[in-house]
Design goal:
about 80 residues; mainly alpha; 2 domains; 4 helices; about 0% strand; flat
Length: about 80
């Protein structure tokens, strides 16, 4: 959640343009979302920090996030190549 809170805040800097992700940006940039992200982070630290499966699960989740954003980047690059 911390990643989404950070991304939402960065994308909302200077205003939120109207497009298909405006709702997503509004949600994750909201000041109301920040306490939730912090609470979830504290819970994860408290209950999962010493469990090996938690580390591997978290790592897998971060790899999925990375791959998600990489795929979007590659898709945008591919679209750009087609328009030339």
């Amino acid at each position: 959640m911390r990643l989404y809170a950070f991304l939402g805040q960065k994308l909302a800097e200077g205003g939120i343009p109207e497009h298909s992700y405006a709702g997503w940006i509004r949600t994750y940039s909201s000041v109301d979302f920040q306490p939730l992200a912090q609470q979830l982070e504290r819970l994860a630290d408290r209950y999962a920090s010493e469990v090996p499966v938690a580390h591997s699960t978290y790592r897998y989740a971060m790899l999925c996030e990375r791959d998600f954003f990489q795929a979007a980047w590659e898709f945008e690059s591919e679209l750009g190549d087609r328009s030339e």
